[in-house]
Design a protein that fits this description.
227 residues, Rossmann fold, single chain, globular, alpha/beta, 7-stranded mixed beta sheet, 2 domains
Length: 227
């Protein structure tokens, strides 16, 4: 089914974890039922095997010192059914800011396919913890970590309700409202946030933005906790 309007890709991926594809200025989402509250322009049946056919439009990208891409291009990341091949601007911006930090312990919130967790481990961050609400994301993160020869401690958790590990740095490439609800719960001194447009900025008492990266209408911020 094709959803029109200006709905953001990242939000759609959270709402429709079975798949989202950009087509002719709109988004096609894979779901068993029409999405409530969306402008549905067209509904089509999809053939068996669509889970593998979508691979044809995923390609690797260069982000700072990294080349991130799927294994069918002989690179490093297989997203499976989890969000994250490294191609989305918010992933690239988060990794750009991450490379400006000295390695330390790290928590990747909403780790998806493990792109950021693996990059952090390769940069020397340790230990690296990854959490996600989706079991498929945890499975994908652990498998991609194995393929890349790095150690990631990943498990299923809700960052808004479950206890979070204490680390020096956290990554939160999620929606802005989730970022702002999450910040008071973090046990770290620095966090890189993304998942929102460049017109938006996290605004939470106690946290100060000290660096920002922008691209293609998206943004990422490095925030520090004021003493």
């Amino acid at each position: 089914m094709i959803v029109g309007g200006e709905a953001e890709l990242l939000l759609l991926l959270h709402i429709f974890p079975d798949g989202v594809e950009e087509l002719d200025g709109a988004f096609a989402v894979y779901a068993d039922e029409p999405p409530i509250g969306f402008d549905v322009v067209q509904v089509d049946d999809v053939p068996d095997g669509w889970e593998d056919e979508w691979r044809s439009f995923h390609h690797g990208v260069k982000i700072g010192n990294f080349w991130v891409g799927p294994p069918w291009e002989s690179i490093v990341i297989d997203p499976g059914r989890a969000f994250g091949t490294g191609a989305h601007p918010t992933t690239r911006l988060t990794l750009e800011l991450l490379q400006r930090l000295e390695p330390a312990s790290l928590l990747d919130i909403g780790c998806g396919s493990g792109v950021l967790s693996i990059a952090a481990a390769k940069l020397g961050f340790e230990p690296v913890h990854g959490i996600d609400l989706d079991d498929a994301a945890i499975e994908s993160t652990l498998e991609n970590a194995r393929v890349n020869g790095v150690e990631i401690h990943a498990h299923r958790a809700d960052a808004l309700t479950d206890e979070l590990p204490r680390t020096d740095v956290a990554l939160a490439n999620v929606q802005l409202d989730v970022v702002e609800r999450l910040l008071p719960r973090l046990q770290c001194g620095r966090v890189i946030t993304s998942g929102y447009l460049d017109r938006d900025r996290p605004d939470v008492e106690g946290w100060t933005a000290v660096d920002r990266a922008e691209a293609d209408g998206w943004a990422a911020d490095l925030l520090t906790l004021r003493p």
